[in-house]
Design brief:
The complex is a heterodimer of chains A (130) and B (123). Chain A is an all-alpha fold and 130 residues long. Chain A has 5 helices and no strands. Chain B has a domain of 65 residues. Chain B is built from 5 helices and no strands. In chain B, helix 1 packs antiparallel against helix 2, helix 1 packs across helix 3 and helix 2 packs antiparallel against helix 3. The termini of chain B are far apart. The chains are: A mainly alpha (130), B mainly alpha (123). At the A-B interface, helix 1, helix 2, helix 3, helix 4 and helix 5 of A face helix 1, helix 2, helix 3, helix 4 and helix 5 of B.
């Protein structure tokens, strides 16, 4: 894949993840990490790191929209997130300590669990919830 | 919506779990925080969604900085993906009222299962 093709693919895939996140409430990271590793041939650690840098602006944009609609309490969320940030740093340190293939298997297991939950949701949900 | 204090133990635990998964797997963490906030924290679905999204901001900053120090972040790739994702989010919100959520979840669940198996095989 040439550099130009790759960037076109990245933007297009970004549109797909953004749309899926809006539709399913499943964040972009879950799709971005497999795309970067399997299609763009990025190593597991770099894929996760890059995914987080996509998740950040997406969360900011979505939070602004929700705040305008008066949903939720951003101040509480940010304070709550400060504890989460300690967890985030610890998680990244843990990931960096693991070999790439091991980390990829951990990710694949997590992805499988998310898939099971989506299917279960679809079966349990009696009608569309909007 | 329930009142929350800074010292709320449930919130601290949920935040820590969400953060850990986020840093470990390179995802936002909302997939675990939202259900925990609803089922354990007693928040309404919408509030839980909003709180989780807000929390992802400091959580992902911490992850990006940690991975960044290790030199793992591909900034130009992230910018290209993010540009598309912000546009796509509007598209998704617009489609939301017109698509069958159940069919969508089933199809996406099946797709993720395939991806998970493929990743495991290629590891």
């Amino acid at each position: 894949m040439t550099a130009a093709t790759l960037y076109v693919a990245l933007v297009a895939f970004g549109v797909a993840t953004g749309a899926a996140a809006g539709l399913l409430g499943v964040g972009g990271g879950i799709m971005i990490v497999p795309f970067l590793t399997l299609v763009a041939d990025v190593p597991q650690h770099a894929a996760e790191a890059t995914s987080l840098l996509v998740v950040l602006p997406t969360a900011i944009a979505a939070s602004i929209v929700l705040r305008r609609r008066g949903i939720g309490d951003l101040a509480t969320a940010l304070r709550f997130g400060l504890v989460g940030a300690l967890g985030g740093a610890a998680g990244a340190v843990l990931a960096l300590a693991l070999p790439g293939p091991t980390l990829r298997i951990v990710f694949a297991v997590f992805l499988g669990l998310v898939a099971v939950r989506l299917v279960r949701d679809a079966i349990v949900t009696p009608e569309r919830r909007t | 919506m329930r009142a929350a204090s800074l010292l709320d133990r449930q919130l601290l635990v949920i935040g820590a779990i969400g953060g850990l998964l986020s840093g470990l797997l390179g995802v936002g963490g909302g997939i675990v925080m939202v259900p925990l906030l609803v089922l354990w924290g007693g928040y309404a679905q919408r509030s839980a969604h909003a709180i989780s999204l807000g929390a992802i901001i400091p959580i992902s900053i911490a992850g990006v900085v940690t991975y960044g120090v290790a030199g793992e972040v591909r900034v130009s790739y992230a910018l290209a993906l993010a540009a598309g994702a912000v546009a796509g989010a509007r598209l998704g919100a617009g489609l939301l009222t017109r698509l069958d959520e159940r069919a969508l979840k089933l199809a996406f669940g099946a797709f993720l299962t395939a991806v998970a198996i493929f990743m495991g095989v290629r590891a």
